[in-house]
Write a structure and sequence with these properties.
mainly alpha; single chain; 5 helices; 75% helix
């Protein structure tokens, strides 16, 4: 890609993001979202997070699903989930999960 193509792509993405995010302010209360849709939208952030994190935990560098004790990301993710269920503190869970992953990677590699 040339520099011009890169800048045009960045500009198009900026415009698309600005239009989609500002549409809720511009439309405002002129359009009412049904209650059922509002209830479903509550789960959108957690679904997006799962869609980002899930493949990273489950796939090896070649793109194959890896359920083994050599998948340190999956082991650390499972440990972090267990920690969160016990403590219910997100910041501590992130630190604990990263500490588990680092320890597994350094000690077992």
């Amino acid at each position: 890609m040339s520099d011009l193509e890169i800048w045009l792509t960045i500009g198009a993405l900026v415009c698309a993001t600005a239009i989609t995010r500002s549409s809720f302010w511009v439309i405002g209360e002129h359009v009412s979202i049904p209650t059922r849709v509002q209830e479903m939208l509550r789960y959108a952030p957690s679904c997006a997070l799962a869609a980002i994190i899930g493949p990273d935990l489950l796939l090896d560098p070649q793109g194959a699903v890896e359920f083994s004790f050599h998948n340190y990301k999956l082991l650390a993710g499972a440990a972090a989930i267990a920690y969160y269920l016990a403590r219910r503190n997100m910041l501590e869970t992130i630190v604990f999960g990263m500490a588990c992953f680092t320890a597994l990677r350094l000690l077992l590699s």
